[in-house]
């Protein structure tokens, strides 16, 4: 397969503007025998089907809210599909309209980061990705799209985005803001020896004072074990574990006195099936809703967030 990877933003003012860019993109994939996905809302799907006519049979329609449920999982699934198709001599083509409505600021930031990392992760796949952005979205969302997509689609013509930013530079920009201090009442455990049994028992006891589901508790235990192991191997004392709740979330923080090296963006890239490496921080990102990492001369902080199913009970030491 000789196709070049493309990742373009489609700014649009209304449905006609949307269809003018989306329909030729989808038809091109249908004609080429690509696997063609259209990820969007129901009302837009209806208009796309009408515009495509019989060609709609060659498109797999996917509901946007489900597709955009978790940044790292969506990235991993889509990348695995692109790699598999490349091996078959085919191309993955996705019209993906991100679901921005109702997301908290941290979720928006992580999806914007993924839009940037896509340019690294998919570079060798030959996939074609087109991301429609309504001009009615908040200005910051539209501006970020121009920084995370190398090209803009205008009609049938792709033009370079002058404000496009290197993906790793953009990811670092996402982490420029310092994390707020944990609440004074957060539960605290000082880790002085690698006794993971008692660490897991402590996390379990604290987490069970909240509505965290049992499956999510098991995910948290695996994630915390991985992060603490990293702190013991690559960080420096003191190592402190804290756990508390915020509205709708359980937050678990591991802080140590060392400065970690970023490597491949602290687990932002999924390990490839044909490549070396362990899952490490990538697995942590899969297990948690959001992972925040800050490192510098003052030490390293890894903050894990898991969604709670209802109004949380406060966790106190």
From TrEMBL:
Annotated ranges, domain MEDS: 7-150
CDD domains the record matches: HATPase_RsbW-like
Top-level taxon in the UniProt lineage: Bacteria
Keywords associated with the record: Kinase, Serine/threonine-protein kinase, Transferase
This protein's record includes keyword Kinase: yes
Domain (Histidine kinase/HSP90-like ATPase) ranges: 199-305
Transmembrane segments: none
InterPro entries: Anti-sigma-factor_SerPK (IPR050267), HATPase_C_sf (IPR036890), HATPase_dom (IPR003594), MEDS_domain (IPR025847), RsbA-like_anti_sig (IPR047718)
Keyword Nucleus: no
SUPFAM superfamilies: ATPase domain of HSP90 chaperone/DNA topoisomerase II/histidine kinase
PANTHER family: ANTI-SIGMA-F FACTOR RSBW, ANTI-SIGMA-F FACTOR RSBW-RELATED
Name under which the protein is recorded: Anti-sigma factor RsbA family regulatory protein
Origin species: Actinomadura fulvescens
């Amino acid at each position: 397969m000789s196709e070049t990877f493309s990742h373009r933003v489609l700014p649009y003012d209304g449905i006609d503007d949307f269809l003018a860019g989306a329909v030729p993109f989808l038809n091109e994939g249908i004609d080429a025998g690509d696997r063609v996905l259209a990820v969007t809302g129901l009302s837009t799907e209806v208009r796309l089907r009408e515009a495509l006519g019989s060609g709609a049979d060659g498109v797999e329609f996917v509901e946007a809210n489900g597709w955009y449920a978790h940044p790292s999982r969506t990235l991993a699934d889509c990348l695995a599909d692109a790699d598999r198709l490349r091996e078959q001599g085919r191309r993955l083509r996705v019209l993906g309209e991100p679901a921005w409505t109702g997301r908290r600021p941290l979720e928006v930031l992580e999806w914007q980061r993924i839009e940037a990392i896509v340019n690294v992760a998919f570079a060798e796949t030959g996939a074609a990705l087109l991301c429609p952005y309504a001009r009615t979205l908040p200005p910051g969302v539209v501006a970020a799209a121009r920084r995370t997509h190398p090209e803009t689609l205008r009609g049938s013509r792709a033009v370079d985005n002058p404000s496009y930013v290197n993906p790793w530079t953009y990811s670092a920009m996402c982490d420029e803001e310092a994390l707020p201090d944990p609440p004074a009442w957060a539960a605290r455990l000082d880790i002085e020896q690698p006794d993971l049994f008692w660490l897991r028992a402590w996390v379990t006891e604290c987490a069970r004072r909240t509505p965290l589901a049992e499956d999510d508790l098991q995910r948290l235990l695996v994630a915390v074990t991985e992060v603490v192991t990293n702190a013991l191997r690559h960080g420096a004392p003191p190592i402190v574990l804290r756990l508390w709740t915020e509205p709708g979330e359980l937050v678990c923080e591991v802080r140590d006195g060392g400065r970690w090296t970023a490597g491949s963006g602290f687990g932002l890239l999924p390990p490839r099936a044909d490549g070396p490496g362990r899952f490490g921080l990538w697995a942590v990102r899969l297990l948690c809703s959001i992972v925040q990492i800050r490192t510098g001369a003052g030490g390293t902080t890894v903050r894990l967030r898991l969604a709670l199913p209802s109004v949380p009970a406060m966790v106190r030491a």
